[in-house]
Amino acid sequence: HRLVVLVSGTGSNLAALLDAHDDPAFGARVVGVVSDRAGVAALDRAREAGVPTAVVALRDFPDRDAWDRALTEAVAVFSPDTVVLAGFMKLVGAPFLARFGGRTVNTHPALLPSFPGAHGVRDALAYGVKVTGCSVIVVDAGVDDGPVVAQEAVAVADDDDESSLHERIKVVERRLLVDVVGRIARDGLTVDGRRARLGRPAA
Ligand code: GRF
């Protein structure tokens, strides 16, 4: 099962997938990493693991649609079965979803539908919730509102700040993402309207 991972930053979720893919029981391999930013740590991690990389930066294209088409092509080169958005900070558009919709998942550091968007941890803290967590979702045209595949809760501590809470969420998030992606590779992913579940559709 071929995975392409989209990144924008540190790449700790990517690193967890790269660690897992050496185990044949995992059932999937990261065959390509695509970033929308040059020079990020995630690209170094991919190179260290011997995985090919590509950078498709929005500013190198005349408009968002041209960028999205180039991104789609860059991903398609690797012939993925599943695309994983792991800390990818841009929304994918219609051309991308036409090609990879239904088999693209994203990891988000909050319990969706609460706190979507780029600041899920900060927003949860500001709201004052006592429990937050992480979500793996199927990517659709909205902002973090695709069908939920899996979630796990993380308690908010009284003395948390954004960084301490995010670090605790990321520990859980990496484990959840690796678990979900491995299960998609081995057992498939079924999406029925808003309901997503691991496993193949009933015959
Ligand atoms: C993750 O918490 C992801 O959900 C969020 O940004 C973080 C990316 O971390 N959107 P990394 O680049 O995988 O280390």
Automatic annotation (TrEMBL):
Keywords: Purine biosynthesis, Transferase. (6R)-10-formyltetrahydrofolate binds at R64, M89, K90, L91, V92, N106. Residues 2-181 form the Formyl transferase N-terminal domain. It catalyses: N(1)-(5-phospho-beta-D-ribosyl)glycinamide + (6R)-10-formyltetrahydrofolate = N(2)-formyl-N(1)-(5-phospho-beta-D-ribosyl)glycinamide + (6S)-5,6,7,8-tetrahydrofolate + H(+). InterPro entries: Formyl_transf_N, Formyl_transf_N_sf, GART, GART_AS. Belongs to the GART family. This is Phosphoribosylglycinamide formyltransferase. It comes from Cellulomonas iranensis. The gene is purN.
